[in-house]
């Protein structure tokens, strides 16, 4: 919730905010975090969806990337849906996440 708040002028989290998010979720089960991010990806506000996608991307590149990738492979709907977004930033971030999830040769 903290990462995806709809406050301020920035539409994307800063590198520091993403780093803090990554550290905080290390102790949590990735499944619960992925479920929470997926829920945020269905928010009516594109800014919230973009922040959730940024969070997903940082997890897909982090220490739990295998588990996160497996989870999103089983539940790709929200990510794939956002690749069709009318918002360019959301669409691009979703495409990056999908590429990480379905990375050739990656598990």
Mind sketching the topology for me?
Layout: H1 15-25, H2 30-40, H3 46-60, H4 65-74, H5 77-82, H6 88-101
Question: Could you name the key traits of this structure?
Answer:
107 residues, mainly alpha, 63% helix
Notes on the structure:
- The N and C termini lie far apart (28 Å).
- This protein is globular.
- Helix 1 crosses helix 3 (46-60), helix 2 (30-40) runs antiparallel to helix 3 (46-60) and helix 3 (46-60) runs parallel beside helix 6 (88-101).
- The chain has 107 residues and is mostly helical.
- The longest helix has 15 residues, at 46-60.
- The protein has helices at residues 15-25, 30-40, 46-60, 65-74, 77-82, 88-101.
Number of helices: 6
- Roughly what is the average pLDDT, rounded to an integer? 87
- Oligomeric state of the chains present here: single chain
Proportion of strand residues: under 5%
Number of separate strands: 0
| Net shape | globular
What class would the helix/strand composition place it in? mainly alpha
Radius of gyration: 13 Å
Q: How would you characterize the largest beta sheet?
A: none
> How many angstroms does the end-to-end distance come to?
28 Å
The SSE string, one letter per element, is HHHHHH
In a few lines, what is going on in this structure?
This protein is mainly α and 107 residues long. The protein has helices spanning 15-25, 30-40, 46-60, 65-74, 77-82, 88-101. Helix 2 (30-40) packs antiparallel against helix 3 (46-60).
